[in-house]
Amino acid sequence: MIPELGNFALALACCLAAAQAVLLLLGAEAREARLMAAAPGLAFGQLIAIATSFAALVWSNAVSDFSVRNVAAFSQSQAPLFYKITGTWGNHDGSILLWCLVLAICGAAVGAFGSNLPAALRARVIGVLGAVAAGFLLFALTASNPFQRLWPPPMQGNGMNPLLQDPALAIHPPILYLGYVGFSVPFAFAIAALLEGRIDAAWGRWVRPWALTSWCFLTCGIALGSWWAYYDLGWGGFWFWDPVENSSLLPWLTGTALIHSAIVVEKRESLKTWSVLLAIVTFSLSLCGTFLTRSGVLNSVHAFAISPTRGVFILALLGLVMVPSLLLFAFRAPVLAPTGLFAVISREGAIVLNNILLCSMAAVIFTGTLYPPFAALLAGEQLSVGAPFFDSTVLPLAVPLVLAMSIGPALSWKRAALFPALQRLWWVALAAALVGIVAALGWHGLASVGFAGAAWLIFGALADIAQRIRLFRVRASESLSRLAGLPLGAIGAAVAHAGLGVTIAGISGMTLASQRVIFLHPGQSTDFAGYHWTLTALDRVPGPDYVARVATLEASRDGRTIAVLHPSDRRFPVQGTAVTDTAIRTNLLVDLYTALGNVQNGGAEVRLRYDPLAPWIWLGALVMACGGGLSLADRRLRVGAPARRAARLPA
Amino acid sequence: MTRKRRRLLMLLACLAGFGTATGLALSAFSGSIVFFVTPTDLATRPPADGRLVRLGGLVQQGSVVHTVRDGRPLVHFRVTDGHSSIAVSFTGILPGLFREGQGVVVQGRLTPGGTFRADQVLARHDSAYMPKAVVAALKKRGLWNPDAGPPPPPATWDTMRIPKQRGG
């Protein structure tokens, strides 16, 4: 009964979304106030319908209703309740439903927070979101309906892929989807602006919080995925330039460009056409991300089930979204004439450089990611483009980007002089050079460049704040009061830039990582990375739906035990698979990383790794997201801010 | 600065950016493309000496042998696509999903001795995964129609046990 209710709610949501698209877009065109006023109601209605449908699917999973095919295929009754629930979106059908749910949340959020938007713009934005939702809901209903019944119901489900039974991976899809789908709102704003033929500074102010929110979630989502790959796959790698990883990085790069170019729209009424294009491209790349992950077009380690019909449907949806938007852009973009002029050496100029570099990076990653499927399609040749390609193309573009990141905020708007800005940054450059030289003496190669870049970014961010509060130029108390009065947006930008510095330091540290794979019997030991490692025990431990083998490794230094680690592997009899669980001891500067391999003749293969600065990679991403959050909290950006300020004035 | 001059500068900057990107991409392409091959490809047209390739197929039933050399684990196994199979050696820890009779992708080089030395072994997230080449081979030999249901268990068609008739 509950699954049927879910199915009905899904169909209802699809109809509501279609109504939302047709009524609102036509209503805005005809300037029909009553139709336009229905926008929030329709968006809320769609959200309620999809939420009901999603809740029905979660319920079916939670009670292990194996008569639902989706549950039978990807769940089993002994699994812990938490993983039964997260298993809802651990598969294709459920994840598409989650996608639609997030889209509906976005639409409803525009309805709820968009009361200060012009009625026609709000109607158009929600209408465009409805059109996208209608397409994806139709897809969910026809090609990947999660509520299909199975007769006779099996006694036991197939079980969830054990690799997915992991806390980080359980919350990874919702966060990533909030990022992906969140970019639908800037997209809808872009299409609405093209339909209206008008973009002004207010557009930039409205779009930026949405783009920023999605960007924060996408940053966290990518970091979670990378962290999961690091601790769960057991290879000690954190980024493989895998197609699925790349497809999440692409909207992040263009989204980063968008949150910067939207500032220029807001402050200087320039780069308007470009920002609209970026909003369209970012959402298209998000759709591509979904398409690539879900269709199996790409030969990926992360690929899920391969189904040609679904792939074609998503490809068609992608075409339906991209082609009309780009056509609309081609016809209407000339209407959006730029008004603000600026010099090349200026804050705007730096942002343009940032946009060019970010988009160039996105372009090479896009090429490297999509070349293999095209080669397979056109030449029938199966090949893969691996890490060396991406390393040698992305790094040269990252160097000028990092250089410009500290200089840009030191330039003033409209027209600036490069030399005084550089003069203010002399101590930053000196610090970066020192870090680089020390690193070059201590180790060698690329790592020292990375450390210098990281120092340049972190100290550059400090210098930016110091400059704004005139530290050491005025009295400390005045500096403090300036700091308190500093717009949160400025602090957020500095924090986010420093966050990238932290991530770069982590990545550079990882290039110095060392590892050893060795076969040990209990009681045997080895010396590695300055530690004395002993395998003290090897046990079998039964779990709820698996049998685990747990090794006990002791790392000691100078006779003192530093860490006792328990790497293990779990074998799942129902699914017939196994996963390795690494054991990591971290002090936030260095990770001691151990993984258990094959066990035979009473001994075990173990992988020992020494990963300097590894945690910084994900800490940096968290800092970046916090920076985004700080910017978001800035009054100037808050959607209702102007209205509220006006209301406060009389009092 | 006039609008024309600003436009020109912007255009030049864009061209420089994307030009560099294109140049980098082209120069990197020539060196870093890794071809995807099946055991049959390796047997019929072996890649040029020492070229890095990705080999995809299924781990042959009963072929996995774990040994230890100099304290480091060394694994031998065979990768098959149903037509031919090739011996693979790998030093290191196999991923958790590595299993006899299941899909695997190994990256490495063909040694002059005819074995494949792998630097990297990738197993799939999806336990039902089957390399495309194997799917094609099974379909071609009429052993599996993907529309009809899940693939037959590997034990029924694995490697040389099935005679190579019914081609096409």
Characterize this entry briefly.
Chain A is an alpha+beta fold and 651 residues long. In chain A, 63% of the residues lie in helices and 12% in strands. Strand 1 of chain A pairs antiparallel with strand 1 of chain B.
List the helices and strands and how they pair.
The complex is a heterodimer of chains A (651) and B (168).
Chain A: H1 2-30, H2 33-37, H3 39-62, H4 69-74, H5 81-86, H6 92-113, H7 119-142, H8 167-182, H9 184-196, H10 201-232, H11 243-268, H12 272-295, H13 308-332, H14 347-378, E1 383-385, H15 387-407, H16 418-424, H17 426-442, H18 446-468, H19 476-485, H20 488-510, E2 514-520, E3 525-528, E4 531-542, E5 547-557, E6 560-565, E7 568-572, E8 577-581, E9 583-586, E10 590-600, E11 603-612, H21 614-632, H22 641-648
Antiparallel strand pairs in A: 2-11, 3-4, 4-5, 5-6, 5-7, 7-8, 9-10, 10-11
Chain B: H1 3-32, E1 33-37, H2 39-44, E2 53-59, E3 65-69, E4 72-80, E5 85-91, E6 103-110, E7 116-122, H3 132-140
Parallel strand pairs in B: 1-2, 5-7
Antiparallel strand pairs in B: 2-4, 2-6, 3-4, 4-5, 6-7
Keywords, separated by commas or semicolons:
heterodimer, A: 651 residues, alpha+beta, 4 domains, 6-stranded antiparallel β-sheet, 11 strands, 63% helix, B: alpha+beta, 5-stranded mixed beta barrel, 3 helices, disordered C terminus
What proportion of the residues of chain A is helical, as a percent range? 55-70%
What does the radius of gyration of chain A come to? 26 Å
Percent of residues in β-strands of chain A: 5-15%
Report the structural category of chain B: alpha+beta
Give the tally of β-strands of chain A: 11
Which residue ranges of chain B are poorly predicted, with pLDDT under 50 across at least 5 consecutive positions? Answer: 159-168
Biggest sheet character of chain A: 6 strands, antiparallel
The count of helical stretches of chain B stands at 3
N- and C-termini, Cα separation of chain A: 56 Å
Shape call of chain A: globular
CATH architecture title of the largest domain in chain B? Beta Barrel
Structural Rg of chain B: 22 Å
Number of strands of chain B: 7
Percent range of helical residues of chain B: 25-40%
Largest sheet of chain B: 5 strands, mixed, barrel
Task: Report the average pLDDT across residues of chain B.
Answer: 74
